[in-house]
Amino acid sequence: MQAAAPSVLTVEDDPSVRAELRLALEDAGFDVVAQATDGAEAVVLAREHRPDLVVVRERGETSERILEERRVPIVEVTKPFGSLRIVEAVTGALAMHIEREVSESRATSLRSIENLVEHLSFATPTATELEQASWERGHVWRRISSPDDLPESR
Predict the structure, then answer these.
(1) 132 lies in some domain
(2) Of 78, 73, 67, which is closest to residue 96 (Cα–Cα)?
(3) CA–CA gap between residue 111 and residue 142 (Å, rounded)
(4) Residue-range definition of the domain harbouring residue 75
(5) Taking Cα atoms as reference points, which of 143, 151, 144 lies closest to residue 109?
(6) Measuring CA to CA, which residue among 14, 53, 7 is closest to residue 32?
(7) What is the pLDDT of residues 16-66, one digit of tens each?
(8) CB-hemisphere CA count at 13 Å for 17?
(9) Where does the pLDDT of residue 150 fall: very low under 50, low under 70, confident under 90, or very high at 90 and above?
(10) Which of 42, 59, 74, 119 is the most buried (most CB within 10 A)?
C-alpha cells in the first residue's frame, strides 16, 4: 500500500505562476489540493482541505490567520523561483515540521509515562524505557486530563 502524497495549498494571484507552482509540486510527488488567488480564499481553503503544507508568495496576515487555526508549515516563495528550489524548500519545511511534531509527541509521551510510573512508584529510567518500547511499537502516550481530551468515537 502506497502512502498518500503530502497535500499542498498554494496562494498566488498570477495564473501563470500558480500553474508553474502546481506543475513543479505535482512533478515532485506532492498533491496540490487547492490553489487560492488571495489571502481570504487561502484561509477558507486551508480550513476546508487541511493541507500538510501551504506555499505563499509572502508571509503576512494570511499566514497568521491560517496558523491561528492550525499548525502547518508555510513556505514563502519569491519570484522568480526555480522549480528545484521550491521543491527543496517545500520538502525541507515538511521534513522539519514532521520531525518537530514527532519530537513533541515523544516528549509528551515521556512526561505522561513518567507521571504514570511515579504514581506506581517505579524509577524514572523505567519511564524512558517504556516510552522507547512504546515508540518502537508505533504507540504514543499522552495524558488525558478530562473527557474532552478523548478522541471522538466514530
Answers:
(1) yes
(2) 73
(3) 8
(4) 7-100
(5) 143
(6) 7
(7) 989 999 999 999 999 999 999 999 999 999 999 999 999 998 888 999 999
(8) 17
(9) very low
(10) 42
> Bridge partners of 85?
none
| Sign of CA pseudo-dihedral 91, 106, 51, 33 | positive
For residue 9 the three cell numbers come to: 495549498
pLDDT of 27 reads 93
For every residue of 34-89, DSSP letters joined together read EEESSHHHHHHHHHHH--SEEEESS-SHHHHHHHHH----EEE--SS--HHHHHHH
- What is the per-residue pLDDT across 85-123, written as a single tens digit (0 to 9) for each? 889 889 999 989 888 888 888 888 888 888 888 888 776
> Does 46 lie in the same domain as 66?
yes
d(CA 74, CA 86): 12
What b/e sequence results for 79-117 when a residue is b if at least 16 CB atoms lie within 10 Å of its CB, and e otherwise? Answer: eebeeeebbebbbebbeebeeeeeeeebeebbebbbeeb
Residue 149 pLDDT: 47
Structural domain count of the chain: 2
